[in-house]
Write a structure and sequence with these properties.
The complex is a heterodimer of chains A (272) and B (411). By secondary structure, chain A is α/β, with parallel strands linked by helices. Helix content of chain A is 46%, strand content 14%. In chain A, strand 1 (13-19), helix 2 and strand 2 form a beta-alpha-beta unit. Chain B folds into two domains: 15-51 and 86-200, Rossmann fold; 53-82 and 205-407, Rossmann fold. The chains are: A alpha/beta (272), B alpha/beta (411).
Chain lengths: 272, 411
């Protein structure tokens, strides 16, 4: 079983997202550790691309800050190696970054991902139709390629995606881009319903920000909750208000704990 | 199944949320555009005639011909309603949206020409219309912003990044991913995911369909070359398409050389928009194509004095045709485009768009052997919108021109 699938084996989990290098690399190391202390069982780490068409304003700004602070794919891999994270890491980036990296398009990116301990990939601008090459290389290297199911994705496409997916399925809770929303949308329930028969962990993202939402999502049949913009926003506020990195880290840890309580896993990692 | 690609270029690199809309659009394209379902294409051509003013003339520019010692014919897309070739595509897509039962239109715009054409077509067909436009472009193309608003469109400024076409496309894609059920995205060039590059090309192909007939009626033979400017590449694809099989006709795509392609890039900024000439293969805005990018795959900001050419990517079919050797990419720099702007205005009484001025500028700055004796230049748009920019830029570049001297003296 892949490390990612394994992460779901003790009940529903929290998967936080942050952008690597926002506002700098040292902060990312600290924040990932904080999120893991708060109970995250998988970390989704954004590798910045200059044209993030699937992301809303909060994550777009984080990506810009990271790029301005000098984040590059090579530095990203160094950073992940250095973190030595105890939970699986999934890289979230866009296809041009994967395509452009290293000597051999696609292959170099996957093999360097493996070397630094990355377990999976989410490439939001790579639908299954275009994914064959990356999928083949990921399979050869034991990396999970995670696809998104959108509210607009209907049965036939779901089947097509499910034939190729590994790790977990990323259920996009609502139309549009990433961001913070107060409620759980009806489309979440409908999407989870469509996926009920598939035996793969289902994690819901796009707009999750509090414990009640997390609880609702799990009650409606999800195995995981993905939350990004809420953490990224806290990092940005901390940066703007000049809060010390450790203190922002503590806030992230608390937020993660809150979401984990909502999820009801109660399996917070209590290591220091 | 019809391919989504041109060789290795093209494809559909978009978020999953848009894939169903893209599939729906692909079927609509196959049915209505390719197979004339419900007489769609007949309706389109009738409307291009009655609303758009087609066919546009192919006009022999006598004084230019004399100057260059070749026969120069201008395909007058500047005379199409709205003042540019953009209406061919905007009208085609808005009409298609109507046939598909969508009542809201969104579009990005760079120079404002596509936004203007879309606002006109949407108003004519009774569709709601919102246009995304970069802040920098809004500032340098004020008249077009007013035109869009007067036609009833809402113009949404995009503040992020460099505030040009690239960001406007990003933001329109984001809108579309929220609104796919009711909304059609009228993309402005032969870019984006399949079926956009083919569909936009098919709507623009009327340019070369007419020009090919017109030149044969006029002189009884095909031209030696067709010259068109290329940013995203829709007027170029439209002007080239029906000549692709005529191997004796050179097809020349003139890109914005900006301050020169040899000029050193500064960080994330290139000093030109020459993606066909020196772009590297990559994926941008839904398609695999030639792109201006850095070694990590981050897209760099392009530069051109002309907002309509200021784009880091290019249509995937053009990228393919360049690799195949069928289309020759060439560049014309900012100052040469401005010179051509004055030249055509003074010698032929036509003020060309700054985009188009690059194609005209190529007549003066051509590579030996490209043009031949009979040349068709696609006069893709008129330049009223650019007058202010030209005044400022010629002053900045210190260009010597009699007209400019008079303007500066206030005569």
């Amino acid at each position: 079983m892949s490390l990612i699938k394994n992460a779901f084996s003790d009940g529903p989990i929290l998967i936080p997202y942050i952008t690597a290098g926002d506002p700098d690399q040292e902060a990312t190391v600290e924040y990932v550790a904080a999120l893991v202390r708060g109970g995250a069982k998988i970390i989704e780490l954004g590798l910045p691309f200059s044209e993030p068409i699937a992301d809303g304003p909060i994550i777009q700004e984080a990506i810009n800050r990271a790029l301005e602070a000098g984040m590059t794919p090579r530095k990203f891999f160094e950073l992940v190696s250095m973190m030595d994270c105890e939970v699986p890491i999934v890289v979230m980036t866009y296809y041009n970054i994967v395509h452009q990296y290293g000597e051999i398009p696609i292959e170099s990116f996957v093999s360097d991902s493996v070397k630094c301990g990355i377990s999976g990939m989410i490439i939001p601008d790579l639908p299954v139709e275009e994914a064959d090459l990356l999928l083949k290389i990921c399979n050869e290297n034991g990396v999970d390629l995670i696809f998104i199911i959108a509210p607009t994705t209907r049965e036939q496409r779901i089947e097509k995606i499910m034939e190729k997916i590994s790790g977990f399925v990323y259920v996009q809770a609502r139309l549009g881009t990433t961001g913070v929303h107060k409620d759980v949308s009806q489309t979440t329930y409908e999407s989870l319903d469509r996926l009920r028969e598939y035996n793969i962990p289902k994690a819901v993202g796009f707009g999750v920000s509090n414990a009640d939402q997390a609880a609702e999502i799990i009650e409606s049949g999800a195995d995981g909750v993905i939350a990004g913009s809420v953490f990224v926003d806290m990092i940005d506020k901390g940066r703007m208000e000049g809060v010390r990195r450790e203190d922002t880290g503590r806030l992230l840890e608390e937020k993660a704990r809150e979401l984990v309580r909502g999820i009801g896993g109660g399996t917070e990692n209590n290591k220091p | 199944m019809n391919s989504t690609k041109f060789g290795k270029y093209g494809g559909q690199y978009v978020p999953e949320v848009l894939m169903p809309a893209i599939s729906e659009l692909t079927s609509a394209y196959e049915n209505y555009v390719k197979n004339n379902k419900d007489g769609f294409m007949d309706d389109f051509f009738d409307r291009l005639r009655d609303f758009g003013g087609r066919p546009t003339p192919l006009y022999k520019a006598e004084r230019l011909s004399e100057r260059y010692g070749r026969e120069i014919y201008l395909k007058r897309e500047d005379l199409l309603h709205g003042g540019a070739h953009k209406l061919n595509n905007a009208l085609g897509q808005c009409l298609l949206a109507k046939y598909m039962g969508k009542d809201r239109i969104i579009a990005e715009t760079g120079a404002g020409q596509h936004g203007t054409a879309t606002a006109m077509a949407a108003s004519y067909l009774g569709l709601d219309c919102e246009i995304y436009m970069g802040k920098k472009d809004i500032n340098r193309q004020r008249p077009n912003v007013f035109r869009m608003e007067i036609n009833g469109a809402k113009v949404n400024p995009v503040e992020r990044g460099s505030g040009t076409l690239k960001e406007a496309i990003n933001e329109t894609l984001r809108d579309w991913s929220k609104s796919v059920d009711t909304t059609h995205y009228v993309i402005g060039s032969v870019v984006g995911p399949h079926p956009f590059p083919k569909m936009v090309r098919d709507f623009q192909a009327i340019i070369s369909q007419e020009a090919r007939e017109q030149i044969q009626v006029e002189i009884g033979r095909l031209p030696d070359s067709v010259v068109a400017c290329a940013g995203g590449g829709s007027n170029a694809m439209g002007a080239f398409y029906n000549f692709l099989q005529d191997e004796q006709v050179n097809l020349i795509a003139v890109e914005a050389g900006g301050k020169g392609i040899e000029a050193e890039s500064e960080g994330k900024i290139a000093h030109h928009s020459a993606s066909l000439t020196i772009g590297k293969e990559g994926v941008l805005h839904g398609a695999r194509t030639k792109i201006l990018q850095d070694a990590d795959g981050q897209i760099v900001e392009s530069h051109s004095i002309s907002a309509g050419l200021d784009y880091a990517g290019v249509g995937p079919e053009l990228a393919y045709l360049v690799d195949e050797g069928r289309v020759i990419p060439r560049i014309v720099r900012d100052e040469n485009a401005i010179e051509a702007f004055f030249l055509l205005s003074e010698m032929e009484g036509i003020i060309p768009a700054l985009e188009t001025s690059h194609a005209i500028g190529y007549l003066e700055n051509h590579v030996e052997g490209d043009l031949g004796e009979i040349v068709i230049v696609n006069l893709s748009g008129r330049g009223d919108k650019d007058v202010e920019t030209v005044i400022e830029e010629s002053h900045r570049l210190g260009l010597k021109n009699q007209t400019m001297d008079r303007i500066k003296k206030g005569i």
